[in-house]
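Q: Could you fold this chain for me?
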Amino acid sequence: MSRRVGLWLIGAFGGVGTTITLGLSCLSRKITPDSGLTTQMPMFQGLNLPEPGDFIIGGHDIRKTSFVDSAVEFRTNSGVFQPEWIEACRDDLLAASARVRPGTKLGSGATISKMGSWGDESPAQNAAEAVDRISKDLDAFVAAEKIDHLIMLNVSSTEPVFHTRDVHHSWASLEAALPTGGPDLLPSSALYALAAIRGGHSYVNFTPSLGASIPAIEELAAKTGSLMAGKDGKTGETMMKTVLAPMFAHRNLKVLSWVGHNIFGNRDGVVLDDPVNKASKVNTKDWVTTQILGYKPNTLVTIEYIPDMGDWKTAWDHIHFQGFMGTQMTLQFTWQGCDSLLAAPLAIDLARLTDLAKQRGSKGLQKQLAVFFKSPEGVEENHFFRQWATLEAYIAGLKG
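A: Sure. Below is the predicted structure, expressed as structure tokens.
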């Protein structure tokens, strides 16, 4: 009998959530290829990974819409998804839509709060109430769908940078503060993470938002046995940085400056057009070169919202470096891809590998998944191929 793996999407009706939901349905029907899925490579064969049809989708969102409408919108604005795919998967998309619940805006910030009004008629008044509501939705989903393992996957918009304080350093102090805590106590990503981890579920943060990245929640996870992974999926320009920076380091070519300019036009672009939200994303994109090279070159990362780009993202990087006898040279590259279709297969990979770890009795932080993230939790190494070697060794150990 197949395992029933619940995949609970935060920001469910967004581009990544919609692509995950449609993609899993298409894969289960074998109407699209599995290209882009790392877990379909030969090294992963023979493991008891959940199949696309084993996932049951639910989630939270602050926009009241449906996966069908979102998929049609994406096709119209960005030219992705064939209409016959949407039609073939309509029943799955409608069933998944019915399992999405109104999310919380508490601690989400002004820009994200403007994106939707679902749930505004009765908002949570404090952090404890918000977490309890989320927990009830998770419990109802697990019971109704007979879920064997629930994975919460945060694919929502990027929140402003959140600065932690003493209250976040222990579970006892944070728990005591929840009943009176407002948006300054925890951002919404952490409220969702707290609900998942308090319930013993798994939590994967595909965004640069805070999520479970505070000592108090990590302490709670140790008690509940939850699995955690994150943060900020590594899908495009930053992935290229973690591949190219090792080349400069291994050839002793000194990088003088590395400039990256990004333009895109989806809803995440709207959110990142706000400087306070943009700062979170820039932080995770900018630090990897310094970590890999061992020194800090001059760096600049820009992210600009261009409405007509839709979900298509273009990154142009200019790398100025010093070669033999001090000769200065340059490398430039352009990366263009559909943002949600780059992210969705990695998110599916993470869900499959998280469930595999759960089956093997794992708990806590899943450091072997660092290769999928810009800012991997608990891992300082950003060299793509060393991260990949860690995952390879982990998989080989499971087979051994």
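A (continued): Residues 41 and 236 are 20 Å apart (CA to CA).
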